[in-house]
């Protein structure tokens, strides 16, 4: 029985009590229309509606703020329903743009009705489970509710920016031609070494200056081969890295940047893997091509900062996830305890590049968070010291002031000459 | 539109029944209070204060009982309660009706609702009238037989309702 039913029962009993207390039959007779109304409602008491439903989305993979039309086709599999209230549950985070998620209608047996509305949302993985159908008799005193399944999934992926990947030099590359220097002589663009002339060498590759110093021998220039490589990207999603805030706005920028970096390396033909390290470990195993791009964006769509006491430091990073002697790119604001882990990664033979968004400058730029200038200076000095320690371990570090777009940073660090010693440039 | 007109009409008529009943007993303050509550009801209908309509229903029923105790002609309080019941019902119904997008469906649902509501209320008023007008003497034995019959009929009704009780909800139809 609904709240209205209880209310009507209260009115009936009030009249009956007054009638009994005053021994007045007239007052009891006043309750008769209400009693009959209540009895009719009991007679027409509803049974659980039998409905089936299908949900359709105009598209199920979108970028943020793209409108999506959701259609719910509901069919009555049971007897005719005079008045039914259908209430679709909108996943938290989606914003209704057009239409309505509720519908009042009558449904004959076998009849179909369509509930249609348009939504948009921020980055995330949204799951539609089902809707609630409530059938009431006309007076609304009794109601029957049944949940109806109509599942679907909407993935709002981060929109990757087009950027030129930062120059990397992993110790080991793969067999196919690409843009990454392979530390091996062969066909390429950059000078690698000089060796004695062998028959078959192209004449234009002979190094005449070196040959002039020798009496008999000729010498040939050897260029560095360029190949594709394994690139493992780690996104730091630990809550403590973002000032212990579960919804720190910096995280969105970091996810966006990670998506752009992944996209850049994938477009160059590299094998890219992604690991999100935070409340749990989510990953996209290394792969190439458009399918891998979808997988990575899907993992990034789900990424949320989280706290897990077992994963408070990077010590439990599953390094076997990345091929040996490959390139690792860590996107993290960095914590003091991470230095040792980065050093051990270098010791294991990985080339490590850290892109560290500057949380201090980001927070200082927020209007309501302006810190004391001296405190900011001290914190920045401490951070500079931390980054210096990491650099000394042979890790490339990019201190990213998030006011500068990642495309600009990437352009700056994609310069070929920096590949020789990017650590020096990055530290400027 | 019909529902809205009926809604306001029922509330005003109910208020008038109470006011006239009060005036017939020379209870001018009572009539004034009834009119005041009626005006408040109209405002709450316009402003969609649903909780206030519920409260007014309770107040009107209580005031009708007082009028009945004051020996006012019985049809006035009975009509006041019946009309207020219609107001309370239609106010809730109107809100649901506004959510129906198709005008044809809305008309069909409205017709169906009226066909259920008005006969039930009319039947209730008729029952009250019979109860208040028809007087007859019963012997104890006849009353006992009638009571047994009522108990039997009630138990049959309960069994019937239990038979068409709702099955447990299913996850996926």
UniProtKB/TrEMBL annotation, chain A:
Domain DUF58: 194-355
Pfam families: DUF58
Protein name per Swiss-Prot or TrEMBL: DUF58 domain-containing protein
Organism the protein comes from: Anaerolinea thermolimosa
From TrEMBL, chain B:
Domain of life: Bacteria
Transmembrane segments: 27-46, 51-68, 74-93, 114-134, 140-162
Keywords (A to Z) from UniProt: Membrane, Transmembrane, Transmembrane helix
Name of the protein this chain belongs to: Uncharacterized protein
Species classification: Bacteria, Bacillati, Chloroflexota, Anaerolineae, Anaerolineales
């Amino acid at each position: 029985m609904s709240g209205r039913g209880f209310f009507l029962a209260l009115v009936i009993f009030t009249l009956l009590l007054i009638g009994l207390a005053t021994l007045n039959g007239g007052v009891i007779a006043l309750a008769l229309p209400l009693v009959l109304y209540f009895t009719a409602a009991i007679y027409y008491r509803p049974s659980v509606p039998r409905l089936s439903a299908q949900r359709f989305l105009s598209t199920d993979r979108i970028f943020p703020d793209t409108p999506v039309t959701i259609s719910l086709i509901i069919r009555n599999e049971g007897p005719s329903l005079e008045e039914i209230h259908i209430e679709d549950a909108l996943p938290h985070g989606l914003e209704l743009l057009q239409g309505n998620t509720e519908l009042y209608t009558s449904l004959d047996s076998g009849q179909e009705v369509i509930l249609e509305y348009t939504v948009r949302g921020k980055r995330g993985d949204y799951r539609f489970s089902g809707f609630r159908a409530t059938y009431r008799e006309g007076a609304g005193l009794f109601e029957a509710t049944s949940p109806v399944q109509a599942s679907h999934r909407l993935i709002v992926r981060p929109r990757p920016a087009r950027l030129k990947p930062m120059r990397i030099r992993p110790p080991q590359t793969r067999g196919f031609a690409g843009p990454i220097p392979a530390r091996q002589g062969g066909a390429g663009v950059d000078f690698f070494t000089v060796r004695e002339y062998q028959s078959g060498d192209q004449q234009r590759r002979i190094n005449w200056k070196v040959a002039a110093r020798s009496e008999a021998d000729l010498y040939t220039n050897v260029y560095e081969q360029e190949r594709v490589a394994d690139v493992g990207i780690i996104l730091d999603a630990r809550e403590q890295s973002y000032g212990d805030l579960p919804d720190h706005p910096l995280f969105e920028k970091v996810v966006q940047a990670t998506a752009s970096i992944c996209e850049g390396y994938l477009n160059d033909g590299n094998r890219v893997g992604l690991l999100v390290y935070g409340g749990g470990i989510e990953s996209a195993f290394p792969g190439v091509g458009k399918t891998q791009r979808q997988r990575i964006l899907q993992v990034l769509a789900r990424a949320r900062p989280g706290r897990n006491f077992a994963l408070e430091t990077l010590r439990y990073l599953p390094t076997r996830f990345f091929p040996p002697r490959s390139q690792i790119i860590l996107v993290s604001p960095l914590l003091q305890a991470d230095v040792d882990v980065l050093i051990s990664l270098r010791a294991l033979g990985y080339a490590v590049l850290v892109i560290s968004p500057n949380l201090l400058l980001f927070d200082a730029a927020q209007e309501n968070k302006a810190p004391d200038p001296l405190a900011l200076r001290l914190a920045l000095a401490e951070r500079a010291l931390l980054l210096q320690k990491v650099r000394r371990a042979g890790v490339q570090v990019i201190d990213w002031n998030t006011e500068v777009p990642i495309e600009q940073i990437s352009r700056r660090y994609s310069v070929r000459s920096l590949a020789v010693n990017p650590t020096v440039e990055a530290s400027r | 539109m019909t529902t809205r007109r009926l809604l306001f009409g029922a509330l005003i008529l109910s208020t008038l029944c109470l006011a006239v009943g009060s005036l017939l007993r020379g209870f001018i303050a009572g009539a004034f209070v009834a009119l005041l509550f009626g005006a408040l009801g109209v405002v709450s209908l316009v402003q969609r204060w649903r909780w206030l309509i519920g409260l007014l229903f309770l107040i009107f029923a209580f005031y009708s009982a007082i009028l009945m105790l004051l020996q006012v002609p019985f049809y006035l309080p009975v009509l006041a309660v019946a009309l207020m019941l219609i107001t309370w019902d239609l106010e809730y119904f109107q809100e649901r009706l506004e959510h129906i997008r198709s005008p044809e469906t809305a008309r069909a649902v409205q017709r169906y609702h009226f066909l259920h509501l008005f006969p039930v209320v009319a039947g209730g008023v008729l029952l009250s009238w019979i109860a208040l007008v028809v007087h007859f003497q019963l012997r104890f034995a006849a009353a006992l037989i009638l009571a047994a019959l009522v108990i039997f009929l009630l138990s049959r009704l309960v069994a019937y309702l239990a038979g068409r009780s709702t099955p447990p909800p299913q996850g996926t139809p």
